[in-house]
Amino acid sequence: MERTLIGQLKEKIGAEVRIRGRVDTIRDQGKIVFLVIRDSSGKVQAVAWQGNGDELIEKVKSLTIESIVDITGEVKEAKQVEQGFEIDIKNIKIDSLAEVPLPIVIEGEHNDNVTSLDQRLDYRWIDLRSSKNQLMMSVATLMTEKLREFCISNNFKEIQAPRIISAASESGASVFEVKYFDKKAYLAQSPQFHKQMAIAADLERVFNVGPVFRAEKSFTTRHLTEYTSFDVEIAYIDSYKDLCVFEQEMIKNMLKAVKEEYGEKIKELFGIETNIPEGDFEYIPVKEAKEKLAKAGVNSKGEGDFSPEEERMLSEIIKEETGSEFLFVTDYPHADRAFYHMKDPQNPKIALGFDLFWNGVEITTGAQREHRIEVLKENAKERGMDLSSLEDYFEYFKYGCPPHGGFAIGTERLLMKTLNLESILEATYLPNTPNRLGKLTTKARK
Ligand code: AMO
């Protein structure tokens, strides 16, 4: 018999069905045992009666919660249960008996969540079973699907930039070095150089979704050592503002789809409304932002960067003033940005780029790029960078390269904000951080 998903049982009242899934709860009342079985589509009560045979009831009594079962039985009307029906178990096969007790409490399933995030992440495959996390994974899937779809419908091509590269693009300090046969190589911190190569290759509009690596010992709620970057690069722009408008529409389109598909469930499980921003996002030059922060009594980290507290506060101020949750911060000092950003010809101290903040967290950096090889080399020299290591990159600009620009969205941060999660670790399938590699913390492994 074919498996019926629990979510489809209501159309099968009176029929014999086969369901496969996990034992959610067990209520043993002697001659009757009530199980609740769950699968990806829902939950249903299944009842084993002594009258259906001793062997059957003994098997059901041997079950533990979170075990995997394969049940055949009849879907019967049952007024006393909320759904109005239950399954009368005729046969049960135990596919996998779960050890008890579970090492963690599954959030919202068996109890209120009483397990720390760190412990939950150590047993992520159990933690992900919660309805909240199941929904989170569905939202994550739809989110990247919609970002991709938006690019594709706007005539983009998808590239897969190499993840092992010969030169660091973002800053020498935060790069993982790998042994590449008898040479040194690096794990890409960004597909930056290779998405720009696509522009020199006349692909004109490209996107790249994939892992990037940052060797930063940052223990914050927004940093990972490996994350998934959604990168965009566009040729023949007139200004970085073209990029801002493109990204704004891309995000609105994504949020609209998330609201349509999962808005109700998100409200139910995460307790938040999915807001689709109306009109244009706000813009503010860094200098003005710093002035607003100073007025609000927040100490500044520096001219060209924001501390997490500043980011949060700035977003709050702008939201209060304009109602906008999204804010493009512009006009950063060039010295604080990547060397490949173009300088403003009116004021070369300023970079032609932006960061996008969403409710207190930076989710994107973008910029118009310097495409004139001599100026580009000059900018790298100004930073004291080793020009010889950048030779391959400079070559892209030697044989004609259109003016261009692009941006990158940290997808985990985007998901974190979409679901209003407290930490990026919660929004990541299996987060890598300085003290957590793979399943267990490095401390626990020792
Ligand atoms: P940047 O380094 O600002 O820019 O990164 C772009 C976006 O990636 C996310 N992000 C991170 N997410 C999780 N953990 C981290 N350690 C982390 N670091 C960054 C953020 C950030 O806004 N090449 C440029 C982009 C470009 O100009 O196209 C770059 O990588 O959301």
In short:
The chain is α+β, with helices and mostly antiparallel strands and 446 residues long. Helix content is 30%, strand content 27%.
Descriptive notes:
- The protein is of the alpha+beta class.
- It has two domains: 91 residues, Nucleic acid-binding proteins (OB fold (Dihydrolipoamide Acetyltransferase, E2P)), CATH 2.40.50.140; 300 residues, Bira Bifunctional Protein, Domain 2 (BirA Bifunctional Protein, domain 2, 2-Layer Sandwich), CATH 3.30.930.10.
- It contains twelve helices and 18 strands.
- Strand 14 and strand 15 form a beta hairpin.
- The model has no long low-confidence stretch (mean pLDDT 94).
- The site of aspartyl-adenosine-5'-monophosphate has 23 residues, from strand 11, strand 17, strand 18 and helix 11.
Show unreliable segments: none
Going by CATH, the architecture of the largest domain would be 2-Layer Sandwich
- The average pLDDT is 94
Instruction: Characterize the main sheet.
Output: 8 strands, mixed
CATH superfamily of the largest domain: Bira Bifunctional Protein, Domain 2
Number of domains: 2
Key words describing this protein structure:
446 residues, alpha+beta, OB fold (Dihydrolipoamide Acetyltransferase, E2P), BirA Bifunctional Protein, domain 2, 8-stranded mixed β-sheet, 5-stranded mixed beta barrel, elongated, binds aspartyl-adenosine-5'-monophosphate
